[in-house]
Amino acid sequence: MKRRKLLLIMIDGVSSDYLENHRERLPNLSFLADRGYLVRRMRSAVPGTSMPGRASILTGVGADRHGVFGNRVLGGGAFIAAEVEHVLVPTIATLASRAGLDVACIGHALIDPEDTSVYVPPSWMRGPGFTKVPSDGSMPYLLRVKDPRSRLAGVPLPSFVQEPARLDNLSRVTTTLIDDQLTVSATAKLIGSQEPPDLVVTEINVTDMFQHEFGYESEEAHFSVAFADSLVGLCLETLRRSGRLEDYVIAITSDHGHGNINTSILPELVIPGKRWSSEGATLHVLVENAADRAEVTQRLAAVGAEPWNDAHLPIGLRERVATFVAPPQHDFEEVPAGHPLDQPFGRPKYKSTHGFRPGMSADDRICIISGADLPIAVAEGAEATRLAPTLAFILGLPTEIFPDRPLFG
C-alpha cells in the first residue's frame, strides 16, 4: 500500500460496548466502521486511564517501556501529572517528523511540540495541576500555540491562559463542548487547506467528562457521544468537499472505556499518611519497603481492595510503587468535604469511571481505521500495542521498531 495521509481522532472514554450497542446513534462512526477495519474490542492499557491510554496509542508499547503508568507518575518522591517529558520512547509524531512528514497536533496530549509543524495544546491542560508553570510565571511550553506559517490564521482556538478551578459543573460542561468544537474545527480547517498535513492528531474530550458527571449510558452521555460523532462528521464532510476523502485514512480510537460505580474507597482514611494516586478503580501507593507494602496491603484488603502485579511499571519503580484494584462498582477517591473520618467508604464524586481490574470488558475501547485501499474487515479483539505500528504502516514508516505487528498489511 502506498503512503497515505492520516487523521487520528482519539475520542475520550468511549467503550467498545457503547459502540456495539448504540451504532444507530452514531452515523459517522458507523459509516467508517462499515467501510473500514473495525476492532470490536481493543484492550486498554494498564491502568485503563487517560494518559496511559494516550501513550499506548502513540508509542505502541506498554507503560513499563513508555513510562506513563498513570495520569500521575512519580517525580521527586510524589505523584505528579504525566507530561510529554515522561514519555520515554518516540511517539508516532516523533517518527513521522524524523521521516520528514508534515505533522500537526491539534489538542492531543503527550505530543512534543518540537515534533510538529502546527501545535495546538489540549484545552484541558490549562487547568490547575496539569501543567508545570515556569518560575517566572510565563506561559508554559506545552500551552503555547505553534503555527509559524499562520496556517490557522483566522481560526478561533480555545484559550490557553491558565485558569483557576471552575466553580460549578455547568461552566465545565459548556466550556468542554466549546473547546471540542473549536479543536475539531481547527483540525477540519487544516485537512481541507491547501497544505493538508501528512499526519494530524486530535482528541475529543466531552465524552469522558459527561460520563463521569452523569453516568454511563445516561441521556447526557448519549448526547456527548453523538456530539463527538458529529465532529467526526465535520472532518468527513471537509474531506469530501475538498476532494481529499481518498487521500486520508481516518483512524478513530479511545483511550479507555467507562462503567458506572456506586461506592468510593477513601485511601486517605484507610492508609493515612501514605502517598497515593487514584487511577479510577486502580490505586498506586508509594511504599518504603516490603514490610510497609505488607501493611498497606493488609489495610486495603480490609476494604476489599486487592493487590495487582507490577508488570505495567517501569522496572526501576517496582519496589517503590504498589498497585491495587478496587472491587466491582468501586473506585478510589479523595475524602469529600464533611465526610466522617471513621467511614472509609463514600458516595463517589463520579457516577462512572474507568481503570478497572485489567481485563474487564468495561475498559475495552473502540478502534476503527477507514480509508481507500484499506481492508474492510472485523477483528474481534486486539492489543493496544498493535495500533501504533498500524499507523506507521499507513504513513509509510518502518514498523520493525515496534514489538507488535500492525493490524493489517
Present the secondary structure layout.
Layout: E1 5-11, H1 16-21, H2 27-34, E2 36-42, H3 50-59, H4 63-66, E3 72-75, E4 78-81, H5 92-98, E5 103-106, E6 118-120, H6 169-191, E7 199-204, H7 206-214, H8 219-241, E8 248-253, E9 259-260, E10 263-265, H9 267-270, E11 276-279, E12 282-286, H10 290-301, E13 306-308, E14 321-325, E15 330-332, E16 345-346, E17 352-353, E18 365-370, E19 377-382, H11 387-394
Parallel strand pairs: 1-7, 1-8, 2-19, 5-6, 5-7, 10-15
Antiparallel strand pairs: 2-18, 3-4, 8-18, 9-17, 10-16, 11-12, 12-14, 13-14
Helix pairs in contact: 6-7, 6-8, 7-8
InterPro entries: Alkaline_phosphatase_core_sf (IPR017850), Phosphodiest/P_Trfase (IPR002591)
Keywords: Plasmid
Protein name: Alkaline phosphatase-like protein
What is the annotated CATH architecture of the largest domain?
A: 3-Layer(aba) Sandwich
Biggest sheet features? 8 strands, mixed
What Rg is obtained from the alpha carbons, in whole angstroms? 21 Å
CATH superfamily of the largest domain: Alkaline Phosphatase, subunit A
How much helix is in the residues? 25-40%
Would you tell me the overall average pLDDT? 94
- CATH topology description of the largest domain: Alkaline Phosphatase, subunit A
Structural class assignment: alpha/beta
Number of domains in the coordinates? 2
Q: Return the string of H and E elements.
A: EHHEHHEEHEEHEHHEEEHEEHEEEEEEEH
Measured between the Cα atoms of the first and last residue, the distance is: 8 Å
CATH class value of the largest domain:
Alpha Beta
Strand neighbour order, sheet with most strands: 6-5-7-1-8-18-2-19
Percent strand equals 15-25%
What's the β-strand tally?
Answer: 19
Pfam families: Phosphodiest
Protein name: Alkaline phosphatase-like protein
Organism: Rhizobium gallicum
GO molecular function: hydrolase activity
